[in-house]
Amino acid sequence: MSRHPINVMITGIGGGSHGMQILKALLLSDLDYHIIGTDTTPFSFGRALVDRFQVVPRADDSDYLDALTQLIRINDVKVLFHGSEPELKVMSENSEVFRKLGVLLPINTPEVIHLCMNKLNTMDFLKHHGFPVPRTTLITSETNYHDIDYFPVVCKPHVESGGSNNVFIAQDGDDLRIVSRYLLKQVEAFITQEYIGDSDSEYTVGVLCDMDGELIGSLAVKRFIMSALSNRIKILNRTGRSELGTVLAISSGISQGEIGPFPNVTQPCERIALALGARGPVNFQCRLVDGNVYVFEINPRYSGTTSMRAMAGFNEPDLMIRRHLLGQELPPVNIASGVVLRGFAERLIPSDG
Fold first, then answer.
1. Do 81 and 139 belong to one domain?
2. Are the CB atoms for 302 and 18 separated by under 8 Å?
3. How far is CA 44 from the centre of its chain?
4. Distance in angstroms (rounded) separating the CA atoms of residues 142 and 283
């Protein structure tokens, strides 16, 4: 236990954010944290869980950085965690500002963040380093989708598209033509990725490296993606490819499932994290097919399963604080295996709150 509370700020603590996941993870620690939470709206689910709550501007507001630094000074904040991808970008680009304030900012380098937030570049990186990847093609117009000769495919924006937004499955050329016309009205370009494996082969993997690039550990969740809460798309497989299952499915991003070490999945992801030069948390979305791990997305940040891994004994934000703020030697992590399920929760915010 620490002698005095450690002042920690977590931004973006709305109910569906990874800021909320970091918050729930730190609440599971036996360290004494004084948590300052922020959000862009007073109607934030996490406000009742923190010691102090403050509304701040959006990350793209010119006053955002000044608002954060002022709160850091007032509250003597020692550690800062981002709770959304727009805030991740701002903090990464201004990391020196926070370091001059004496704040631990446990995030990846701008280079890693920039690479992983571009899905096409991510696939190119993995392929270049010898890791198996689903076939991936950039679609820039309604003409070059004719080049696709592999189906089914997952169609999605290739930059900054969190939360499974604008994601579709095309099972043939006719589907792809319709999806292309829609997506190219929303974004300048998108990618098609080969749909591989069945709905029972998907994992989300958290790998944690310290700020010096040393591997701390990893933990995986074998996703249950067919439930209503965890499923975004679920369509009958009409491709004739029985190895993909009777239904083609895409996760909603709200993960639940079997949690554990799963070394056949986590070890390849650890190697990828080290190849990336990760300096913080990295989250991998992948499928295990014929003994090979096919990564189709990498998030260079804490993820929507951070609190689930903390429940199993792998508390990523807490471990980073112990390593880099308190200078502790980290003992081997005692990981529990089991099933983590999710549901909805409600909270009443009083009118005078």
1. no
2. yes
3. 20
4. 32
Q: Which domain holds residue 185?
A: 135-194
pLDDT in tens, 238-258: 999 999 999 999 998 888 999
pTM over 0.90: yes
What would the two tokens of residue 241 be?
A: 């490819």
DSSP state of 103: -
Per DSSP bridges, beta strands 190-194 and 338-340 are unpaired
- CA pair distance 293, 263, nearest whole angstrom: 11
Cβ neighbours of residue 39 closer than 8 Å, sequence gap 6 or more: 11, 12, 13, 14, 19, 46, 47, 53, 55, 56, 83
* Residue 256 sits in the same domain as residue 185: no
Q: Do residues 8 and 34 make contact, with C-beta atoms less than 8 angstroms apart? A: yes
pLDDT digits (tens, 9 = 90+) for 91-149: 999 999 999 999 999 999 999 999 999 999 999 999 999 999 999 999 998 878 788 99
Residue pair 214/221 in contact by the 8 Å Cβ criterion? no
CA distances from 167 to 157, 162, 232 (A): 8, 10, 9
Residues 278 and 226 in one domain: yes
Distances (CA, A) of 87 to 46, 210, 272, 297, 353: 17, 21, 25, 20, 25
HSE-CB of 292 using CA atoms within 13 angstroms: 11
Domain holding 141: CATH number? 3.30.1490.20
97 found inside a domain: yes
Residue 142's identity, in one-letter code, is E
Of 46, 98, 65, 72, the closest CA to residue 347 belongs to 46
